[in-house]
Amino acid sequence: MKRREFIKTGIAGSLALSGVLNLHRSELKGAPAVGNNSNQINKNTMKIVVLTGSPRRNGNTAFLADNFIKGAKEAGHNIFRFDAAFQKVEGCTACNSCGMNGPCVLKDDFDTLRPHIIEAGMVVFVTPMYYFGISSQLKKVIDRFYAINGQIKGSPKKAAYMMAYANTSDSEAQPMVSHYQTLVDYLGWKDVGQIIAPGMWPAGAVKNTNFGNKAYQLGKSV
Ligand SMILES: Cc1cc2nc3c(=O)[nH]c(=O)nc-3n(C[C@H](O)[C@H](O)[C@H](O)COP(=O)(O)O)c2cc1C
To answer: What's the pTM?
Structure first.
């Protein structure tokens, strides 16, 4: 499928972004909340889906997720956490039988996640850097958005990003940040925060930093 078709199909399946082919961040900022659904953007209680991508249960990104969740729960939100590394999620096979908006031929743990992503008022992506990118565990989950693209593209969701990596160069993190921003812009979601934690090598290194508190504060603020 060509990129233009990809964008069009997503919009055709979503509710009402008539005439808009590509949303940009500047267009989203300040966009009013619409409707009275549970996924509208406001300060009311919402469902937040937290997607983690590390196979280290006590790793740095798990700690960021824990802290975000603590803050978000204190703010009154409902959390659905999906630790991709401990779930069975196959990679999209590009069969296209879903047409970007329908049942997926793959039957695995994405079935559990699917309704939560659709309903959520916010999705948080949490990942270690693996060879300069999102971990494959999380990326497989994101690729499975393909089958629900028509239901989530243009839905007024918030999004946030938290990542950790061993090196300290900003430029090495930039492609991952750019990837996240491009994804969120494409989906028409509103980025509300990013926590980028460099210099994190062994599991637990992040506990000696202020990033846990930043994640907690982010959770409280949404
Ligand atoms: C397979 C693998 C690839 C990695 N690739 C990178 C990398 O490209 N750049 C980097 O700075 N750190 C890299 N790291 C280090 C992790 O990003 C770092 O340890 C991070 O804090 C792990 O987060 P976690 O504890 O949540 O798993 C890699 C680690 C693994 C296991």
So the answer is: 0.86
Q: Which two tokens stand for residue 156?
A: 């007024």
- Tens-digit pLDDT profile for residues 81-114: 999 999 999 999 999 999 999 999 999 999 999 9
Please, are residues 218 and 195 in contact by the beta-carbon 8 Å criterion? Answer: yes
Closest Cα partner for 50 from 68, 63, 76, 75? 68
Residues 3-22 have pLDDT tens digits of 444 544 444 433 332 222 22
Ligand 1 mean position, distance from CA 211 (Å) = 16
* Ligand 1 pocket mutation pick from 56, 57, 165 by most atoms within 8 angstroms of CB: 165
* Contact of 27 with 185, CB cutoff 8 Å: no
Q: Is the CB of 196 under 6 A from ligand 1?
A: no
Q: CB count, 10 Å around CB of 23?
A: 20
CA distance 72 to 120: 14
For residue 110, report the phi and psi dihedrals to the nearest 5 degrees.
-65, -25
Tell me the CA–centroid distance for residue 171 and ligand 1, in Å: 15
List, in order of start, the domains of the chain with CATH numbers.
47-221 (3.40.50.360)
Token pair, residue 210, equals: 């202020």
